[in-house]
Design brief:
18% of the residues lie in helices and 27% in strands. A two-stranded antiparallel sheet has the order 1-4. It has a domain at 20-71. The protein is α+β, with helices and mostly antiparallel strands. The radius of gyration is 21 Å and the shape is elongated. Bound molecules: zinc ion. Zinc ion is lined by residues 27, 29-30, 32, 50, 54, 56.
Length: 82
């Protein structure tokens, strides 16, 4: 009979320090999209300008970034991003 030993290892997830978050936005009334930026305030400003010119007031917004998982007891040096 084969026996298996199962152990639980705690994991945590962290934002990757060597990458930037990418902010994007798009209007829900037309096809307008903001120029993506690493600064959310710049994308928000573009939405405000679009709303002022068009009276379109609803936008999708997204922030995309990298994260990495660290196992308890291992180095928390972030792996390279491809
Ligand atoms: Zn619009």
């Amino acid at each position: 009979m084969t026996r298996a030993i199962v152990r639980h290892v705690a994991h945590t997830i962290k934002p990757h320090p060597n990458t930037a978050v990418r902010y994007e936005a798009g209007c829900q009334r037309c096809a307008w999209t903001a120029v993506p930026s690493s600064e959310g305030a710049i994308v928000d400003e573009q939405c405000l300008v679009h709303a002022g010119r068009s009276n379109h007031r609803v936008f999708t917004r997204s922030a995309t970034g990298y994260a990495f998982v660290v196992r308890e007891g291992e180095s928390d040096a972030p792996p390279a991003v491809r």
